[in-house]
Amino acid sequence: MSRFHLGRLLLLGLLAGGVPGSEAAEPVRVSAVSLPEARAWRDRIDALLRAGGLGVRKARADTLMPERQHIRYAQLYQGVPVIGGDLAVQVAGDDVVSVFGTLYDGIALEATPTFDADHAVRIAERVSGQPLGLRDPELGILPLATGGFALAYTVPVFSEEGRVVYEIDARTGAVLQARHETETQSAVGHGKGLLGDDKKMSVRAASGRFLGDDLLRPPLLETVDTKGSLDRVFQVLNALIPAAESDLIADSDNDWTDPIAVDGHAYAGYTYDFYFKRFGRRGLDGNDLKVRSIVHPVRLQDYALYSPDVIGFFFANAFYAGNGVILLGEGLPPGVTLGGQHFTPFAGALDVVAHELTHGVTQYTSSLIYQGESGALNESFSDMMGTSAEFFFQPPGSGPLKADYLLGEDITSPGAVRAMDDPALLGYPDHYSRLYRGPNDGGGVHFNCTIPDHVYFLAIEGGRNRTSGLTVQGVGAANREQIEKVMYRAFTLMMPSAASFSVARAVTIQSARDLYGAGSAAERAVSQAWTAVGVQ
Amino acid sequence: MRARALLLAAVPAALFASPAVPRAAAAEKGPFRLWLQAGLVAGKPSFSETRTFTEFAEQGRIDSHYDEDSGPGVEGGLGWRFTHRFAVHAAASWARRKEAGSYSAALPHPLYFAMPRHAAGDFSGRSIHETAVHLDLAVVGGSGLEWSVFAGPSVIETQADLVQAIEYTHAYPYDAVTVTGAPLASVRGHALGFNAGAGLDWHVGPHVALGLQSRFSQANVKLQPAAGDEVAVKAGGLLVSAGLRLDF
Questions:
Q1: In what helix (H) or strand (E) does residue B45 lie, and over which residues does it extend?
Q2: SS (H, E, C) B4-21
Q3: Is-catalytic flag, A446?
Q4: Nearest C-alpha of chain B: how many angstroms from A513?
Q5: CA pair distance A352, B112, nearest whole angstrom
Q6: Pairing of strands B208-223, B231-247
Q7: Interchain pair B113, A276: CB under 8 A
């Protein structure tokens, strides 16, 4: 629906001469994108130019569409620019393609100042208390929030408060408004993670504080601290209330002391970097989708107040909530276990954070149905990429902050969440013959995923499947990138949403063949690995 | 160092071995001497600097190396021969050496610790200026062809162009930088040192002589390109010059 107001045709006349006595400062929003509307605007713009109601401010070529040009017009009143009044016109040859902008109606004032610009600077100097040198403040027509317009000098002043723009009435000398225009800027801070490791925090500096808003990476990566309020979590997850600036993790001196915030924020960035550097992928949707990580969804001291469902979901868990949002559970209080395991905050494991964010990649690519074998493949792809990210950033080995084939080992004791190298070690299936076919867990999505997980491991490292006894010749750890790319390509570009393990076998083998050739080590490793786990 | 040792050894040797100059001849010329001469400051000294700085919550490092080359020098002075054999000299000299250099830098990564980006470059066409004031005790001898040896303290001021920072651009993922400049700033410093030398003057008139002189001077000047940073520079060197002397 067009937002162009035909009823505003009167605008032409008003802009040209103004209406004496009018007090209105209502802007007319222009949004003309259809051909007839845009062409009608071409004629109006010509008329406004002739009448002196518009002036060309800038014309630019379109670097992405060479045949297009963009012209920006400034609204003028008696030759003085109207602040905020302008039109951005897209032109293709003689045709106007689109017109967007804001024009002000009903301006009626004397557009001649009663004092010069230097006097305006002195007024700003007096009001701000900041010595000001020579400058040339702009004169413009300022639409007033209270209605009407004023002829005003605009004088920017820098001080400890940042950049404050003073609008000074050019006829009376009154300060009409002092607008703080301090732009936020990126900052890099330091923090220690849950395991005591040093991390850089790419954040936003604003108003003397530092906020968990990564301005260095291409997408917006923000970390929200819901401060243990489950109500706030639901509000944010259900989009009832947009996360406000006050919800972001914050620090006063950029030396971050909340290790959960540090790890949650940093690992979301690491995951973006891994996907970009390894696969050239720009974020979850390939188009730098905003990522929001929620930390502190609950408080450990409130543990006893909650039902097992809440404990299983918001304490000892992490999940992808859709549309780029992940929630990282708080872990369990000291001495409390679940299934015989203790969990520390889930933000503390890179493979866990990358796992959850990979669900976002799946959402925007294969959309593997979260049920049965396709659901297990969905989980498995997250395990594969979580582990790949770990190997990308951490040295191989065992123990904290070391890359291995265990999932969540840095936040779980004893053991881990899953073991890709030997799934049976933690009671998970390593062979198709052990597939769980019951109704729980969406048909065993978090259980059966270890079968393709083991394929990933065997294809890289090689080895023997404990159930089948078959041996796989892997590509070797030095060539892990090959298998990572095979899996990434298969799961993001070629996998159908309802894929079975058998389909996944065919897709991943094809992916290996496409990337590294028929008969390549990668193809052989992937093929042997699927056979070893009993998937044909 | 070798020149320094030779010159220092020459002072007492000259003191005791040089032939006496008739007092009358010295009196004819008057006890004062003015001289002005120009020449070449020789040698190719070099110095290095390592500077650390904090960026992106991590320490970075710039290693700079500077090579000096020979260049022109001038000297002017006033002497007073207070005995038949001894004189005191006060002289000021100025020299300019060509300066070239190179730098390499480890620039902190904005997103990760211990993943520095490396940058390197070089520059040339710059200069190091040295201004010195020398106060010497001289031993003189000879008449038509007059010789002198001298030594004493010097104050040497050095002005050098030092790399201040590495300017660069970078873009995500920030693993490499494109160096856009390495601005140099002129930094001064001075120190007390010594000088020693020898001269040979040929009188072409009762009050006029043509002279040839070599003066070796040295001082360890500390340049401070930034607060907390210090660069040690061996200032001075061997200035070989020739010029005019006026006795009065």
A1: none
A2: HHHHHHHHHHHHHHCCCC
A3: yes
A4: 30
A5: 20
A6: antiparallel
A7: no
DSSP code per residue over A161-217: TEEEEEEEETTT--EEEEEE-PPPEEEEEEEE-TTS-EEEEEEEEETTEEESEE-SS
- Select from A365, A274, A350 the least CA-distant residue to A318: A350
Q: Which of B54, B58, B59, B111 to mutate to test binding with chain A, by most A CBs within 10 Å of its CB?
A: B111
Query: Are β-strands A325-328 and A291-295 bridged in parallel, bridged antiparallel, or unpaired?
Result: parallel
Mutate to test the interface with B, among A255, A262, A273 (most CBs of B within 10 A): A273
B63 at A interface, C-beta within 8 A: no
Amino acid code (one letter) for A460: I
Q: Count Cα atoms within 13 angstroms, Cβ side, for B150.
A: 30
* CA distances to A4, A17, A114, A139, B169 from A142, in Å: 24, 17, 16, 9, 38
Q: What is the largest CA-CA distance in chain B?
A: 85
Rg (CA), chain B: 24
CA distance A396 to A398: 7
Task: Supply A191's token pair.
Answer: 């923090």
Whether chain A has a CB inside 8 Å of the CB on B113: the answer is yes
User: Is there a contact between A188 and B172 if contact means CB atoms under 8 Å apart?
Assistant: no
The minimum CA-CA distance between A217 and chain B, rounded to whole Å, is 6
B216-241 burial, b at 16+ Cβ within 10 Å, e below that, comes to bbbbebebebeeebebebbbbbbbbb
Give the pTM.
0.71
Full pLDDT tens readout for chain A, 536 residues:
333 232 233 343 334 333 333 344 567 777 777 788 888 888 888 999 999 999 998 787 777 677 888 888 999 999 999 988 888 888 888 888 888 888 888 898 999 999 999 899 889 888 887 777 766 788 999 988 777 899 999 988 776 555 678 889 999 998 888 776 554 578 999 999 999 999 999 999 987 899 999 999 999 999 999 999 999 998 888 876 666 778 999 999 999 999 999 999 999 999 999 999 999 999 999 999 999 999 999 999 999 999 999 999 999 999 999 999 999 999 999 999 998 999 999 999 999 999 999 999 999 999 999 999 999 999 999 999 999 999 999 999 999 999 999 999 999 999 999 999 999 999 999 999 999 999 999 999 999 999 999 999 999 999 999 999 999 999 999 999 999 999 999 999 999 999 999 999 999 999 999 999 999 999 999 999 999 999 99
Residue B56 touches partner A, C-beta closer than 8 Å:
yes
Is B110 within 8 Å of A269 when comparing Cβ atoms?
Answer: no
Helices (H), A288-371: 308-310, 350-364
Distance CA B131, CA B153 (A): 14
**Catalytic residue among A265, A359, A446, A454, which?**
A446
- Closest residue of chain A to B170, computed from CA coordinates: A216
Q: Are B134 and B91 in contact (CB under 8 A)?
A: yes
What's the rounded Cα separation, in Å, for the pair A392 and A386?
10
The alpha-carbon gap from B109 to the nearest alpha carbon of chain A, in Å, equals: 9
Instruction: Report the interhelical angle of A450-461 vs A372-393 (nearest 10°).
Output: 40
Active site residue A119: no
Joined tokens for residue A502: 């058998």
Specify the residue for token string 């002036």. Answer: A55
Contact B110 A216 (CB under 8 A): yes
**B55 is written with which tokens?**
């960026």
CB atoms within 10 A of CB A508: 28
> What value, to the nearest 5°, has the Cα angle with vertex A9 and ends A5 and A10?
125
Residues of A in contact with B112 (CB under 8 A): 200
Q: Which residues pair with A151 in a beta bridge?
A: A141
Residue among A188, A198, A254 whose CB faces B110 most closely: A188
